[in-house]
Amino acid sequence: MQIGRSNGMFPAPLYVALALSLLALAHPDPLRSIQRRLHGASSATVRWFLAHEASAAERPEEERVRAQLAEQVRGRVRSMLDRLESKAEATLHAADVSFGRPEHGGLQTSTEGMRGVVCRIIDRRSHGGSVDELVLDRFDRELEGSYAFVTVSGGRVGRRKNAEVLVGFLADGGVDSTDERRRPDPLARHARVKLMHHASGLSDSQATLAVLDSGSEPLRFLVEPAGVDALFPLSCSLWSDHQFDSKTGLLDSPVYSAESVGAVVPGGWSGKGSRGRWVPAGLRIGKIAIWGYQNESGVVAVQNFVEPIVEPESLATVTVWFPDADSRPDRGVGRAFLRDVEFEPVTMLRYRTPTASGRRLLAASSSGSSRAFPGGAAVVDGVRLLGRIETAGNGFGIVSPFGEPGDRQTFLFVPSAESRDPIEFEGEVTLREGDLVRLRVPQNLTLSSGDLFTGGGGLHYPSGLWIGPVTGTGSGFAVTRHRLLRDNDRRAEVVVRRPSGGRL
Amino acid sequence: MIAVLLWFFLAPWICLLDGELATRTPLRIDLGAAQCLALVLWIRTPLIVPILVGTAVARSLWMGGDIALHMLALGLPVAIALPARSILNQHSLSVQALCGASLSLLIPRLSDALAGVIGQPAVALPVGVFDGFAALLFVPVLARLLVTFPPLRLARVEEQIQ
Q1: How far is Cα of residue A324 from the mean position of the Cα atoms in its chain?
Q2: Closest partner CB to B82 (pick from A9, A17, A22)
Q3: Which of A9, A239, A418, B133 counts the highest number of beta carbons within 10 A?
């Protein structure tokens, strides 16, 4: 018996398709919308089945009770977060919080006559290297009249716990010029902070006058971006005493800002923007790091750098300062947390994939809307975080559940004891076993009893979404209890922030 | 054409079934390997690309990664093996077993390599040597099942007894 076979063993269409796939892999962006439509069509039968099953299992009374409970829990969480935010602001304006060190008589600056406004970070961007730009939850217009310098609390100066750390400067105008050629930026109207090592700093004279205590008298010098390939993000130049620029004895010396109104550049002041570039004295910038080489007489410093003491990835909030209380915007309590956020109901399907992670969720619009879900949006069950939309389609999204190993984001830890301050940190999931999720946290951080919340990770991934209680902690790790959607749970919500043009 | 359309809507369910099998049983068998084996041995050549597209779309939907990535991870082994169809005896169990095991080991590695090159997270099931041995038996059976029932039955090469 012989089997006859068809011809065409060298299928040209298959080779063409593979060549096109290779091209699509190299340039994926133009094909995103086609991919979204194909995903939508492919999942149509699954979504139809899901909607049919959900409507068959619908019990209006149970749904009503569930919605009421979810709203009550949301209210409690909002209330708690509002208290936290009020407390954070109150802390900032407490009498003992001031810039600078008292022993530096001439450098001391206080916050008297100034008011700080805590802004949450909703996006972090980089321009060829590490993160060098932060996008805030405030519109640029909301921060009109503020100083350009932006700080973060948490530095420790001597015995002061709340020393302010200079992290960067507000960019004039919303859109960064480097983004103009790209597609419209949904965050274009939001205020941005250019960190001190921002890539544009080299051409924008983004230098800050700094000072350090050398023992006899303060040494002044400029701190400026060191460039993408440098050992440290900031470098030092133009020392007031040239003898010191090659001394290695300055290693690890703390660096503070010196009061300045901007740098002199060809054509005027660098601080001629709408906000000016006044910088108060005494803001902590970092510590001296030295690159050099060893010879017979000792170590010779080739270049001095400044190593910042805060990492932009670990920040969830920054403080913008206003000249006086009258000019501060009317913001209302709690706007930073879960503000301008809507919860869009979805039907969930938990499924397993033949992948290493093995778990995914399908979120399909309950209302039958075909509006595209925003990519990266948080998905919650009430206020409890379930995950983040990984593949967004029209009226549906594939959700990557929270707790997958390698998931790295900013967290907000709220201690049970009301007297203790909340802590923001960057952590990474290392292991999930059942409901227990193990996180890698900074080595110097020890969490006590309390709850873990999201610290914000994008426009539709706000801070203040409850993850779970912290059940264990140790040096460099913490364990939280996070319950994922059960197989028969169907109801959840996608977090959607209202468009930025909606209100100010 | 009907076979292709039906497959486009059935492939997501097959992929979900794949996930259930992979996570609920100790066997780590990728149904993608069985689909590729079916394409190499039994599916009509003009229908290979559209069927492959349906599979790639479904895997991209549920498992993550771009459609193009899955298209390449599944399509490259098929493109390499297809010219050998004329010399392979499709009814030989050893040919089916060896092809199935090879595909089962190759597809996840190719998928991971491609994902690594373009900086996307790995989307394939990690498959070990033991799984390769299991694939010797199970992949040909699963491939046979796929082409025994519609819609892939409608896309099979016409077999003429001479």
Answers
A1: 28
A2: A9
A3: A239
Here the ipTM equals 0.88
Q: Provide the shortest C-alpha distance from residue B7 to chain A (in Å).
A: 10
Largest CA distance in chain A: 103
Query: Comparing C-alpha atoms, which of B37, B19, B60 is closest to residue B137?
Result: B37
Residue A455: φ, ψ to 5°: -105, 10
> CA B60: distance to chain centroid?
14
Determine contact, residues A210/A250, Cβ cutoff 8 Å: no
Q: How far is CA B82 from CA A6, B11, B85, in A?
A: 12, 21, 5
- Return d(Cα A221, Cα A233) in angstroms, integer: 16
Chain A residues 8-47 within an 8 A CB cutoff of chain B: 8-11, 13-15, 17-18, 20-22, 24-26, 28, 31, 35, 38-39, 41-46
Pairwise CB contact (< 8 Å): B79 & A1: no
**Beta-carbon separation of A15 and B79 below 8 A:** yes
A65-74, A486-495, B111-120: lowest mean pLDDT where? Answer: A65-74
Cβ of A261: how many Cβ atoms within 10 Å? Answer: 12
Mean local confidence (pLDDT), B40-68: 90
Read off the tokens for A216: 């006899």
Chain segment A182-214, per-residue pLDDT in tens: 456 667 778 888 888 887 654 455 667 777 766
- Helix spans in A337-458 (H): none
Tokens of B152: 């892939």
Q: Read off the pLDDT of residues A79-88 as tens digits, 9 standing for 90 and up.
A: 666 666 665 5
Q: Percent helix, strand, coil in chain A (nearest 5)?
A: 20, 40, 40
Helix (H, G, I), strand (E, B) or coil at A382: coil
- State the best of B5, B15, B45 to mutate against chain A, taking most chain A CBs within 10 Å: B45
Query: CA of B153 to nearest chain A CA: how many angstroms apart?
Result: 16
Amino acid at site A141: R
